[in-house]
Amino acid sequence: MSSRYAAIYFPYLITDWMTLRKPSQRNVPFVFAVSSHGRKVITAVNPVAEGQGISVGMVVADARVFVPGLQVVDHREGLDLKLLEAIGFWLIRYTPVVSVDPPGGLLLNVTGCAHLWGGEKAYLKEMQERLQGKGYRVRIAIADTPGAAWAVARFGKADPLVQPGKQREAILPLPPAALRLQAETLELLQKLGLYRVEDLIQIPFTALRKRFGENLQTRLRQALGEEEEFLFPLQPVAPYEERLPCLEPVRTAAGIETALRQLLEQLCRRLSEEGKGLRKAELVCYRVDGKSQKIKTGTNRPSSHVEHLFNLFELQISQIRPGLGIELFLLRAERIEPVTRLQESCWAGNPGLADENLSELLDRLTGKADTCTIRRYFPAEHYWPERSVREAPLNNRKPPIPWQEGIRRPIHLLPRPEPIKVSAPIPDYPPMLFHYKGKVRKITKADGPERIAHEWWLEQAELRDYYCVEDEQGRRYWLFRSGHYANSQTPGWFIHGFFA
Fold first, then answer.
1. Where are the alpha helices (DSSP H) in 22-163?
2. What's the domain count of the chain?
3. How far apart are CA 183 and CA 189, in angstroms?
4. d(CA 231, CA 163)
5. Torsion sign (Cα): 349, 352, 358, 359
6. Residue 455: which residues within 8 A CB-CB, separation 6 or more?
7. SS3 of residue 342 by DSSP
């Protein structure tokens, strides 16, 4: 079987990407430009601007003479390579060998792949339609050599499917630029009147080498298939998962535990070598009857400790129903994060969430979701108490701002203030009693008010006057009045928390 290669060319790669992000620019002339020696030079144009005479390499000031309404976007260094790599990884579904070919191209070794799509014609059509459906203008060609496919994809005007052994006839009428030559060589060929590859074929290779160097001869021989060209394919990152097939179906909890421990050892070994830890993982057990059983677990901080992770999974092993037996175990890391190595210290102990033992204890407690719920909170930059805290992850992350000290706050804060009825002697005084949940509570002591205003730049709201009050039974509450007494209108009173 002869080798077959496909070349994919994106003539408007970056501008198509921008159009996908901003569809309103589809019919607007715009370009990408980079600053160079005090002027802006165009690096990419969209089809609308190109149709009005704008081309790559022009100065933006000159281009705006032709198109006064031309929009200019700053050039992004390395964006084209990132896009090509992303598309290249996506194309691995069509062939395992995909190589980035800047500017604006990809090279694929498609040997033995086309028959899976019903032949090369259907194979080429499938890739072209899928890429165009994603919003990219694309040209694709298939030939026996990467050089011939590259030339036909960019300069060919006939059939993009070059038949086996016909690459010579396909590239003869094309310009010398189809051979991927340097700009200096192309300029020299233009001066000498060599406008087609056919003109170069008639010149002996020794004369070409003396006049134009080794590169022209090499590119020509590669395109004709007389010299081999090697591709450097993209290497996809292997998924963080481990498989364990079983010679005999596993039916017991002990067998499941043995398989789980072996999978964790393999996965954690790789994570440790890469300096990463597991945050979420899933164990899938495939039974002989075609059904599967799944259990999941998670950690508060990245971990690659086999025993700790095994203990977390062990809590859920009883949920697995092996049925007639499990023939395949699959352990998949759904989320991983880099592991931050704590600095070694001569001080004894490591208090707080930085202590790995405490973190692992929290993992075990939160794994028992039916019996224990643990939450952590960070301070937030808001004045109103119910907005001054937010829920935070149970890891070693530090609060973005320090906690406020020296202010009295209840140990139990209601998520939303609840309205109450009060009896106050005179305005701006604490109440004498209040009604809450069908009971009347007589106040014996009170302290306040503490005025807390809302951020006026967020929304309009009444200010609050908070009071710490104590009833006859010694229970203390946090009450507030919303607004002032004005125009014979009675402001609302609310209960917001309970002290110890």
1. 47-51, 60-66, 79-90, 120-133, 146-155
2. 4
3. 10
4. 21
5. negative
6. 382, 383
7. coil
How many Å apart are CA 241 and CA 233, to the nearest integer? 23
CB count within 10 Å of CB 177 equals 16
Cis bond before residue 160 (omega within 30° of 0): no
Residue 497's H or E segment, with its range, is strand 492-498
- Check if the beta carbon of residue 174 is closer than 8 Å to that of residue 153: no
Q: Which tens digits make up the pLDDT trace of 172-196?
A: 889 988 888 888 888 888 888 888 8
CATH classification of the domain holding 188 = 1.10.150
Same domain, 272 and 300: yes
pLDDT number for residue 316: 87
Alpha helices in 315-447 (DSSP H): 356-367
Residues 133 and 268 in one domain: no
Residue 146 sits in the same domain as residue 170 = no
CB 160 within 8 A of CB 151: no
**Are 128 and 147 part of one and the same domain?**
yes
Q: Are 110 and 94 in contact (CB under 8 A)?
A: yes
**DSSP for 25-41, written as a single string:** GTTS-EEEEEEETTEEE
Angle between helix axes 13-21 and 79-90 (nearest 10 degrees) is 80
Element of type H or E holding 336: strand 326-338
> What is residue 347's predicted lDDT score, i.e. its pLDDT?
36
Q: Looking at the domain assignment, is residue 487 inside a domain?
A: yes
Distance CA 67, CA 51 (A): 11
Q: Using one digit for the tens of pLDDT, what is the confidence trace for 230-252?
A: 888 888 877 888 999 998 999 99
Q: Please, are residues 171 and 154 in contact by the beta-carbon 8 Å criterion? A: no
Q: How far is 342 from 356, CA to CA, in rounded Å? A: 10
Same domain, 59 and 135: yes
> Do 266 and 214 sit in the same domain of this protein?
no
